[in-house]
Specification:
Elements lengths: L2 H45 L5 H14 L2 H11 L9 H26 L3 H9 L4 H31 L11 H12 L2 H30 L8 H9 L8
Length: 241
């Protein structure tokens, strides 16, 4: 690697980090926040089995899970202007990503809610709790633990998928790398540099996920010493009775 290329990489690194902090991270956080809220609404509609709305929700999930994300972005950014609706690139990316990720996350949340034993919900009714109180105090805390690993995995995937926003002219980190590469004609080195930054960011998120999973893990009660001794010694079955 010659001195010129080293100079290009060193000079481009702060600029890539700037657009990571200035555009990529805000884009990712905005999409994830909207997706979680929308996904929760979609999941609740399905869990409550609201007639009409449930069917519409299933159609929504079917469409957005069955079509490519980049096609959805192109429809919103390039297609809607033909109908007289013109949106800037950043909001178009937020809308497309949010609609797409919400479809996937809603299935995760729905499955997590349904994983809570029905007996616990019935017990909540027996002690006089309303459905809202049962959801808030019993179901959602348990469902959150179940859904957390998959939801956080979606966040990590979103940090990488956000680079697709460059295809509709959002100047985020990868688009910045493309611009620098086209200026200096060093695409391999600059794209590898961008990939390294994505890798560092997602490595930090992975460590954060592991830490939070340990904090959210169920506390397993320790067996009493007497119980462990009894189980260790064992009680022979009576014979001839």
């Amino acid at each position: 690697m010659n001195e010129r290329l080293w100079g290009i990489l060193i000079n481009s690194f702060p600029r890539l980090l700037l657009y990571l902090v200035k555009v990529t991270i805000p884009l990712t956080v905005s999409i994830f926040a909207i997706s979680v809220v929308l996904a929760f609404i979609l999941a609740i509609v399905q869990v409550l089995n609201i007639k009409g709305l449930k069917q519409l929700t299933r159609i929504y999930v079917w469409i957005f899970r069955g079509t490519p994300l980049i096609v959805q972005m192109y429809i919103i950014f390039y297609g809607l202007p033909s109908l007289g609706i013109t949106l800037p690139a950043f909001p178009s990316a937020v809308i497309a990503f949010s609609l797409n990720y919400a479809a996937y996350m809603s299935e995760t949340i729905r499955a997590a809610i349904l994983s809570v034993p029905e007996g616990q919900i019935e017990a909540g009714y027996m002690i006089g709790l309303t459905y809202g109180q049962i959801m808030r105090r019993i179901v959602i805390p348990q469902a959150a633990r179940v859904a957390f690993p998959t939801m956080f995995g979606s966040l990590i995937g979103l940090t990488k998928d956000s680079s697709l926003a460059a295809s509709i002219t959002v100047v985020e980190m990868f688009k910045t790398a493309q611009q620098i590469a086209s200026k200096y004609f060093e695409p391999f080195a600059l794209y590898c540099e961008a990939a390294l930054i994505y890798l560092m960011l997602n490595t930090l998120l992975t460590f954060l996920q592991s830490f939070l999973e340990r904090r959210l893990a169920w506390k397993q009660p320790k067996d009493d010493a007497g119980d462990s001794d009894a189980s260790g010694a064992g009680i022979p079955a009576a014979e001839g009775v």
